[in-house]
Amino acid sequence: MDSKKVLAFINKAKIIIIFMVMCIILSILAPSFLSGTNIINVIRQISIICIISMGSMLIIITGGIDLSPGSVAAVSGVAAALFATQFDGPVVLTLLVGLLVGGGCGLFNGIIVAKGKIPAFIVTLGMSEIARGIAYVISDGKPISGISKGFRAIGRSSIAGVPVPIVIMIIILIVTYILTRKLIVGKHIYAVGGNQNAARVSGINVDRILILVYTYAGLMAGLGGLVLTARISTGHPNSANGYELDAIAATVIGGTSLSTGGIGSVFGTLIGALIIGVLNNGLDIMGVSAYYQQIAKGLIIIITVLMDRKETN
Amino acid sequence: MSSEYILEMTGIIKHFPGVKALDGVSLKVKKGEVHALMGENGAGKSTLMKVLNGIYRPDGGSIRLRGEDVRILNPNDAIKKGFAMIHQELTPVPHMTIAENIFLGKEKKKGFFSDDRTMVKDTQELLDNLGFYFNPRMRMAELSVSQMQIVEIAKAVSYNADIIIMDEPTSAITENEVQKLFHIIRDLTAKGVSVIYITHKMDEVFQIAKHVTVLRDGQYIGSKPIGAITSEELVNMLVGRQLNEIFPKERQKKGEIILEVKGLSMKNAYENVSFNARKGEILGVAGLVGAGRTEVFETIAGIRKASAGEMYLNGNKKQFTSPNQAITNKVVIATEDRKGFGLFLHLKIKENIMVSSYPKFFPAHIIAGKKINTVCDEEMSKFRIKAADGNQLVGNLSGGNQQKVVLSKVMLTDPDVVIFDEPTRGIDIGAKSEIYKLMTNLAQEGKCVIMISSEMTEILGMSDRIMVMCEGRITGVIDNTEDVTQDMIFQMACGINEMPSAGTNR
């Protein structure tokens, strides 16, 4: 009984063990890796992906996939930057614009997936093109600079020594945790992913759950886009390219199953994002070229998931 | 040296960590006989068959085949030695043809190319010999479950198997089709093929088998010729209990009408269905598969939509457009397809039990883990769900326990009308008798229990009233008195005989 529990724990903690082993190796190879500033740096670097991946994770738990958050983040950021430079309204309003654009894209995805019964892959692929296109149209293909100091603060200032992007990320992690584990809605999300037919027969409004999840993912993409725009002080229509794949990678490394829905956790996804971040950062410090970094990232995705699968099955 | 047995398994022992799955089990099969292998779930039938199929190596005992000691190394070796296994859950490739499925993995070639013509010709011969006149170029997806089963049998025959193992071959087919299957089995045995027939169904054993071997908890209980045993004795061997304990049914005093349906119709499924159901009764719904029973009751439970007709609940007109609405109005259904529509196999027992009832327990939408655990523990002991705790994944439970999880989930919503669609399909007799007890208790509590079943013994043993459907129409509603026989119900189910009042029953 006890040994079983220990085994189950190791099985659960495998991803953390992989993460720690990576950290240990990197700190030996590059002593500066473990410095306080560098750790903060890593977390700040992953904050945007981590925020976006919370939405991607929920979608993957329901058995879907989201290929649009990169583009949605870009269009949200551009829209907010445009609003900020044209109207010079309060920052809150600017942020609201970004979130509305992101949430709107998500809502659209959700309605088409739930009511149109079209595979999420196709819907979100389409949305990815549409959102990116709109970003180019409204910005006329040019970066929008000159955004206000208040807006920039979201990406660049700190609260009590902690960079604001990290604070936002932590808030989102907590909110998503509560959503998935402490609210009925969370239980229903897992049920819809586990068996959509059974969920419907069990009295769950499946369409509503799907729409909610896709809207949440859109909001997260919008928020990610706002932080990114503030960080680079520019609304760039070409920004956040490929972020959707990083978000999916973080989710999958974190133990969310792409093949069977109904499995996945906030904590796992956070670790997944950290693994990607630590790897990039460690290789950076060691002076490994960006080309090799990309290869390493690809390998780590496959290896971690392989190790995870092997023992769970 | 020859023996009267084609297969003799003696003293087979198989250990798994912590369990003795088989403890000195014997199975002796004669040439050309149907040998039934019975036992509750977990009795060791599948383990024994896996030994025979070379998937497991036995830790002790001997296997003699045609009088010679043999060792079966792997499933391929088993095929070479003349065994063929037809699994309970068929695994055809739906978009390939019958011929392609039969020759899967042993395709005929002409030079480099696949020799489709020969394969089709050979398949046609096989099917003709089985009296199954279908085009070998038909796709598997177009066949019914029983037809697929016949294709599986053809596949077994194509291996020239002389021992065919059938694992619950009738679990998904209708009474009519069962008779067709039996006909084929009799033809096969007449040609000298032996059939090991695994089943839970008592009446089938008496119809088709010559001999029956019974296992219980990995132990060999005994082996008897069918002529020398009564069904009571057989049940006794299976469960170590008496038959009258299986149906706990006591006739109920009928309460008032709670559910009334008038002229309900759905295109291509059923038409003009009118009936009522009362509090405190068990209404058995009999009929052949495809009679429209499931469709009628799934409509009532909000899963399907009727094209015409009315439904009254406690005298109030209702129409449910989603299962959610039905559950809120205290009408629930435990669907026929347990895995497809009832369970979340990757989720925990407690999450399955709670799934319909979260809003009831947590009106503020905030979940408390402790509360879930207490509710779940209560439910698990009430429904006698056998598992370590509520954290176990439902996918790892036996069929009987899974069904109990479904029932627990459904009952936790506190319904007034409960519809059970084939509640005991594929479960062993021990779990069955527990489910019967649960249904009886529900009726005694004043719930309206509706039980759709294709098993006559169950319909007759459990129902207060019996409603029979045939091809989308109600062909009879009768009180279940002593005079009601299987034959009467069967005739109504086939539409041979009809209650004069059936169509207009209000």
The quaternary state of the protein chains shown equals: heterodimer
What structural class is derived from the secondary structure elements of chain A? mainly alpha
The CATH topology of the largest domain in chain B corresponds to: Rossmann fold
Shape estimate of chain B: globular
Number of domains of chain B: 2
Enter the CATH topology name of chain A: ABC transporter involved in vitamin B12 uptake, BtuC
Main-sheet strand order of chain B equals 6-9-10-3-11-12
Main beta-sheet strand count, sense and barrel state of chain A: 2 strands, antiparallel
Description:
- The complex is a heterodimer of chains A (313) and B (506).
- Chain A has 313 residues and is mostly helical.
- Chain A has a single domain (38-312), classed as Orthogonal Bundle (ABC transporter involved in vitamin B12 uptake, BtuC), CATH 1.10.3470.
- Chain A is 78% helix and 3% strand.
- Chain A is built from 13 helices and 4 strands.
- In chain A, the strands form 2 sheets. Chain A has a two-stranded antiparallel ribbon with strand order 1-4. In chain A, strands 2-3 form a two-stranded antiparallel sheet.
- In chain A, helix 3 packs across helix 10.
- In chain A, 51% of the residues are buried.
- By secondary structure, chain B is α/β, with parallel strands linked by helices.
- Chain B folds into 2 domains: 5-244, Rossmann fold; 257-504, Rossmann fold, CATH 3.40.50.
- Chain B has 18 helices and 22 strands.
- Chain B has helices at residues 45-52, 75-80, 98-102, 116-129, 145-158, 175-190, 202-208, 231-239, 293-300, 323-328, 338-342, 349-354, 358-361, 369-382, 399-412, 429-444, 456-462, 486-493; strands at 5-16, 19-30, 34-38, 60-65, 68-69, 83-86, 109-110, 113-114, 163-167, 194-198, 211-216, 219-225, 257-266, 270-278, 282-287, 308-313, 316-318, 331-334, 417-421, 448-452, 465-470, 473-479.
- In chain B, the strands form 5 sheets. A 6-stranded mixed sheet of chain B has the order 6-9-10-3-11-12, sandwiched between helices.
- The longest helix of chain B is centred in the middle third of the chain and has 16 residues, at 175-190.
- Chain B is globular, with a radius of gyration of 24 Å.
- In chain B, 44% of the residues are buried.
